[in-house]
Amino acid sequence: MIVGEIRRYLRDNTSIRVSRSLRDTAYKALSAKERLMNQNSKEPTLDEIAAEMGVSRREVSAALDAIVDPVSLYEPVYHDGGDAIFVMDQVKDEKNIDDSWLEEIAIKEAMKRLNEREKNILKLRFFMGRTQMEIANEIGISQAQVSRLEKNALGHLRKYL
């Protein structure tokens, strides 16, 4: 009874909550994987497990990923007696690299030097994904004027960058 209460506490008080149905799917996938390994004497693919269970490959993948215990970024993955290599050392962040935030700051500074009309056109065009025709209709000028203003604004940005 005490072990059951401890398990319930740990299950209910973790930072990541996984639904019971997703966990059940994961455990069914693990048992299907074991059955297929015994039958075929080889590691089954996700497609084979999904076919065995009668669910989609995506569902099996999501369920199996959901029951994996999280790993600390400071977990050592290799140690040769010298400095340890941690998970963090193996993870590369493409989005938040130094160059990207420097470029973002430079673009913001350059945008401050444009007039309001040019800022508005560039914001609508590149940050909101609008076409030149949509911008022209919105601000009440022709598409050719939007094109010309956009070209001039990009020229000014290049000069400031």
Spatial strand order of the main sheet: 1-2
Total DSSP E strands: 2
| CATH class placement of the largest domain | Mainly Alpha
Q: CATH fold name of the largest domain, please?
A: Arc Repressor Mutant, subunit A
- Count structural domains: 2
Q: Pick out the low-confidence regions.
A: none
**Oligomeric description of these chains:** single chain
What string, H for helix and E for strand, traces the elements in order? HHHHEEHHHHH
Rounded average pLDDT: 86
Helical run tally = 9
Largest sheet: 2 strands, antiparallel
Q: Give the N-to-C terminal Cα separation.
A: 67 Å
Helix proportion: 55-70%
Structural class category? mainly alpha
Shape: elongated
Would you kindly provide a written description of the structure presented here, covering whatever features stand out?
The chain has 161 residues and is mostly helical. It has two domains: 50 residues, Orthogonal Bundle (Arc Repressor Mutant, subunit A), CATH 1.10.10.10; 63 residues, Arc Repressor Mutant, subunit A. The protein contains nine helices and two strands, in the order H-H-H-H-E-E-H-H-H-H-H. Strands 1-2 form a two-stranded antiparallel ribbon. It starts with a helix and ends with a helix.
Report a brief summary of the structure:
The protein has 161 residues and is mainly alpha-helical.
Present the secondary structure layout.
Elements (H helix, E strand, L loop, with lengths): L1 H11 L7 H21 L5 H8 L3 H10 L9 E4 L4 E3 H4 L7 H15 L3 H12 L4 H8 L3 H18 L1
Antiparallel strand pairs: 1-2
Helix pairs in contact: 2-3, 2-4, 3-4, 6-9, 7-9, 8-9
